[in-house]
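User: Last request for today: this protein with zinc ion, please.
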Amino acid sequence: MALKLYNSLTRRVEIFRPLSRGRAVGLYTCGPTVYNFAHIGNLRTYIFEDVLERVLKWNGYSVKRVMNITDVGHLTGDSDIGGDKVEEEAKREKKSVKEIAGFYTKAFLRDLKELRVRIPRTLAPATRYVPDQIEVIKRLVKKDVAYDTPTAVYFNVRKYGAKRYLKLSRQPLGQKLIGAREAVVADPHKRSPADFVLWFKLVGKFKHHILRWPSPWGVGFPGWHIECSAISRKFLGQPFDIHTGGVDHVGTHHTNEIAQSEGAFGKPLARFWLHGEFLLIDEKRMGKSEGNFFTLTDIKKRGFHPLAFRYLVLQSHYQSKLNFTWKSLEAAQKGLEGLYKEVFKLTLEKRGEGKEVRNLLRPFTEAINKNLDAPRALSFLRRVVENTEHAPEDKLETLKTMDKILGLGFEKPKTAPKASPRIFTLLEKREAYRKSKQFIQSDRLRKQIDSLGYTIEDTAEGPIVWPKKIL
Ligand code: AMP
Ligand code: ZN
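Assistant: Here's the final one, the structure of the complex with zinc ion:
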């Protein structure tokens, strides 16, 4: 059952084979710009990448995952105009650039933990790898695909070759030029609107830029895209196996990364490119600059558990747009609570003989190996829950095994109720009434238990009290 992935570069679903059999699979995922909290749209992308990593491991590969943290050089508007996002936020909050980057990096990692997204072993802040970035730029200048001006060092798209440059996005250069026109007005030294900055100099609006490093072209700071070329090469070599991000990165950021890395070293950057679709709100892209976003804290404030959001995300394919609504989150939370209850009940059921577990895992693996079809994989998980032929302990084991990919937290069965002894006393009394068929009394106790925030479920193994809110 080969693992198949959609490769944005070839626009085909291809069988995944690692570049080197003996080495771990190299996985590079573009990280956040740490000037604000991540919104749940960003988090959708990180969940998709987490599932990808888990699926690779499921298939027996060890994975070397690297993520950059953008703490310099990402300008507002993602192009070469505007100010440095992190520095602008530092000014607004009257804090140092370091404090801002540190604070939002921590907040980001907290979000990932709460969503059970594995934190990449290598987290690389751009500011720590500036010499590596300078090395890549030096090579580009030497190869004459970059040029130095009084304002910046630019990547020369025409010299590199427009067709080659557009191999990922296949977007006509004309379309890109329209977006970049403003930048030409801003810098008369730029030769073509499609060219982009590799190194900013401390002139004009950047005269007082706080973060600055010496370079062969004068003191300055790196452009946004170069950090990914330098960091991925440093930790994963070139080419490496898989590069990922959100679909918005196809046209500019990833296109520029490829041009830089391939222009400097004459080799492909990555073998597979995977892109996660957007989370929408009111059918529009959720975005920081659009101002239409929610953070994980926002959803927690409304009484939702982070894993309810993870479950919601898993219910759609990563290549489909997902329109976020509070109603759908509520349904996801209820659905996940239902799954937790089932998992807990399985721990109570009597052991017994059953069919082989492998039967149940097979279709799940097939689904997840077919370009990460999580919604279909979930349908097989539900089949296990509903299945009556298998022994409870086998079902439980299967669910826990599936959870290695889903990350919904089944490995510790949620012990139903951390209810107080008082609840259990009431429950015992109710059982006694029920057994002696005193239904009016037993019903009164059920209501009393209900008013204390618990519901009773009668099962073959006896009654269980559930807190009304499990998550
Ligand atoms: P940023 O911090 O803006 O660089 O974005 C971090 C990651 O989130 C990138 O991989 C983006 O492509 C992705 N992203 C941004 N907006 C959305 C969205 N609305 N839905 C899904 N992913 C997004
Ligand atoms: Zn990147």
